[in-house]
Amino acid sequence: AIKRVIELAYEVKRLDRLKESLIEEMAKIGTSLPEVAILTTIPGIALKSALCIIAELGDIRRFHSANAINAYIGIDLTTYQSGDYMAKQRIRKRGNALARKVLYRTVINIISASSYRPTHFNDFYQMKKQSSQSKGTKKIAIAVMSRLNRTIFHLVLNNEAYEPTVFQPKQ
């Protein structure tokens, strides 16, 4: 049993090294993509996160709208209704679960990074958090994911870098 544990420990180390080498190779290939350069201009999205987003979503230009991206990853809203009864809206969860997970972690990174690099995502998150005490953090994060998808779609389609002042609500 001890030999098997040692063998498995070596296998874990080998796979970790393989993972790191694959990430380095992805970074080399991905830095030539204009989408990666655009995504990394958003505070809280580093090279690895940008590569994961591109890997899961593919070519963002293939989507006809930001709502199509939401549907692809399964955060589009659905409502159950029967007769006069209408249930609460919830996300479909029919799309790419890994893309949903990557974008959720990205949103958490963006919100965490907002203490030193503010974004309109954090402003939206804080506004929703204060306005509704009953809404959970995950529900608000999914709303921010939708906003992030719209922003990414706009930036990539127009080949623009993220500029926080452009996306601030007009007062």
TrEMBL record:
Signal peptide positions (record): none
Pfam families: Transposase_20
The Transposase IS116/IS110/IS902 C-terminal domain, residue ranges: 37-114
GO molecular function: DNA binding; transposase activity
Gene Ontology BP annotations: DNA transposition
InterPro entries attached to this UniProt entry: Transpos_IS110, Transposase_20
The protein, known as: Transposase
